Amino acid sequence: MDIDRPANVSFFDFVGGVQLLQREDIRTAMPVILIGICVSGAVGNLLVLLIFIRDFRNGLGSEVKALLASVASTDLVILLLCAPVRAITYYKQTWTLGSFMCNTTDWFQHSCVVAKTLILVVTTRAKHTLDSSIDTRPFHSPTWIHGALAFIWIVSMMFPIPQMLFASLLLYGRDTICVSEMPVCASDFMKLFYKIYPTATFVVPVTFCIAYYTKTLHTAVNHAPSPQHQSKVILVLLCLSSALGLMLLPEWGTFTWIRLGYNNPPVGLIIFAQVLLYACSSISPVILMTMYDDVRQGLIAIWFIATCRGSKHVPSIKCPKTEGNGAEVGVNDIANAVSQEEKTFPDVEHFWTGRRNTHIEEEQDPVPWEREEKML
């Protein structure tokens, strides 16, 4: 993959994945790894979106759930639209997707990553303004959420515009590769920009989220009126912010390293950073399903619905009914569903009912002297 840097450019980087690799094992393994991450993450994010949509339809939504649904949607877009481009590039080892994809692929991916980070920052305001009963009252989508999401996506699409401007196709022998080249005349300004860009879109937001939720978690545990409920939700948001910061750090590090004009980092580090970026989008639904009570209970409800639909042809099995968003499905419902399968013999039941309701009249008493002795 070594290519001599042209004399009139200040940095040189591949766009859409590392190209011109000579090792066949990487060419085979990377598409498989990326496709596996893409499929598993897409399924997880789709389930999270279905659970949130079900909560909204049942009037059990909240501002935090709306923002987390936006995070899941962004992760889904990254996995379905960005990861396959890298998988194709690693398999082909050249660029085969045309000039439009070359110019927009890195710009679009950076827009999604920045938007996801900024949406997590907005969740701090949502938790600060919501009380502990937010998840049990009807949700009316406030205007500020729509305005905040629109502003976030506009800013996220404007910041990576240089990724689009400096991307171009380059002939390398008989092959075509997609690279990013920055002219020397713009190097001074762009070096300043590439110091501000990662700081404003990654370092400051992630640091703020982690610090805010750490402090809020400490307050919720020690001073909140219902610490168990509040601390669980805050812990989920803290884990999401921490996972995003740790897993995107290599990607932002290699990105800044190259664009500040230093020597190219090792190829293994670049590939590892790209894998972690997509793995971050797959980890988020796992965190929600395992730690967020509403998502976990909604997942159980969806599983019951799918199971009951598959068992409709069995008349003796009745599925447990759910109320609301399915959060009420528990051990008692399962026990009731199982007990309905047990059969009761009507003759025996009538016999014991008759025995319990039998009343012996005085005239029909076969041993009246015993009753008289008791009365004496």
Count of separate DSSP helical elements: 12
Main β-sheet, in a few words? 3 strands, antiparallel
What does the average pLDDT come to? 79
Radius of gyration: 31 Å
Shape: globular
Strand order of the largest sheet: 1-3-2
Count of DSSP E strands? 3
What sequence of helices (H) and strands (E) makes up the elements? EHHHHHEEHHHHHHH
| Low-pLDDT residue spans | 128-139, 314-318, 320-332, 334-344
Structural class: mainly alpha
| Distance between the first and last residues' Cα | 112 Å
Beta-strand fraction estimate: 5-15%
Query: What percent of residues adopt helix (DSSP H or I)?
Result: 55-70%
Describe this structure in words.
The protein is globular. Helix 1 (about 25-55) crosses helix 9, helix 3 (about 100-130) runs antiparallel to helix 7 (about 225-260) and helix 7 runs antiparallel to helix 8 (about 265-290). The model is unreliable at about 130-140, about 315-320, about 320-330 and about 335-345 (pLDDT under 50). It has helices spanning about 25-55, 65-90, 100-130, 145-160, 160-165, 185-225, 225-260, 265-290, 295-310, 330-340, 345-355, 370-375; strands at about 10-15, 165-170, 175-185. The protein contains twelve helices and three strands. It is about 70% helix and about 5% strand. Strand 2 (about 165-170) and strand 3 (about 175-185) form a beta hairpin. A three-stranded antiparallel beta sheet has the order 1-3-2.
